[in-house]
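Morning F.,

Quick status update on the modeling queue. The single chain you submitted on Monday has been processed. Sequence for confirmation:
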Amino acid sequence: MHKILIFISFQFIVGYTAILFAQVNKVTIVSDDAGQWQLKVNNENYYIKGGGGTVHLDVLKSCGGNTIRTWGIENAQEILDAAQKMNMKVMLGLWVQHERHGFDYDNQEKIAAQLESFRLAVRKYKNHPALLLWGVGNEYELEYSNTKVWAAVNDIAKMVKEEDPNHPTSTVTAGTNPEKLKFVKEVLTAVDIYGINTYGDIEGVEKVLKDGNYQGPYMITEWGPNGHWESPKTKWGTSIEQTSTEKAKVYLDRYQKCIAGQGKQCIGSFAFLWGQKQEYTHTWYGLFNEAGMPTEAIDALEFDFTGKYPENRSPSVDSIHFNGQNSVKNVILNSKEKYEFEVFAKDLNQDKLSYEWELYPESTDLKSGGDAEAKPTMIPGKLKGKNSSIVQLVAPNAEGRYRLFVTVSDGKKVAYLNVPFYVQYDANSSANAKSIQFKKQDLKSFDEE
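Structure tokens below.
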């Protein structure tokens, strides 16, 4: 009786293992004689139409996306399972520690421990059917000095290929330039696909790769609006954010020219951020707002991925007027004075629009490389009519930098813009003053340099 049970148990284990391995997808990256690169899943062509993030998978799927990207293995099982249910794939990240966070790439024990921790992760997840490829590190060369990190990354990639021959390896740098490309070509010999995070300088990628004679496949692993570090600034040094409508145009133009238009070597991309976060502002990079509503850039991505816009289009914003003037680049206000802002928006579906204005001090918790930042505390009691297209603002008492946000919604999607401004303290100002107490030359349009 015991022998029969043992035999049945053994047969079950063998059968279960066979089923498990039957689910494993063989992912390869191949090129033809002309140097055309193609990612293949079980010998079928696969072009990455991705979102950088792990939330709102249903929205990504509905707008034609097929892949998500993680930066580490936190909640990896749940993420892989969720992607599999949606018939989507995952670029699973292995978070290589950064020198700027205190990691020492002269410490061989720490380097070895990091590699072995990744080995366990690879063994755990390598057979998941939603796995597309491995992302070995992200922007580890940002603000660094110890170039030994490149060899450490390559050793991790070697290990991954030994443990998992069924999925390609990739790595991701913060933008690209000749120096980084040299390390990619000469040191990262175990990396199959080069990933590049790039924003306003995405149009320069093609030239860097061409000048550096890079012949391999690559992905644009983060892309979107102009970064806060590369945007126009006010006279007092605050970065000016593009409106949601300007960003939507960016997602259209840059995809067509710099991603789909580079099909020989570019095997796809991940739009950033498929979610929401505080980074410089709480609207700068997120493709969703804090309430989880899609922004109009997602309409643009649906056109990118499918060639068609959704039936229900997002609202869009045209401009904002300040005290009747379409000039909002260098707005300087007097403390306690009253001012008026009006946003002009439209909706192609003629949906009824709602408005929400919010006032914040300018963020001072500024980090680099996407590190976590704290959102400033909203300032109450300074806005009248904050749920209409026109708002009256009483300038804060304290001198300093502030930002006024407005969100326009059709109930399902949102558009937005914000205006940074500076408050100068005036001990003699009247709370009922009606005149504008600033110099005309301090007002310039958004697009004026």
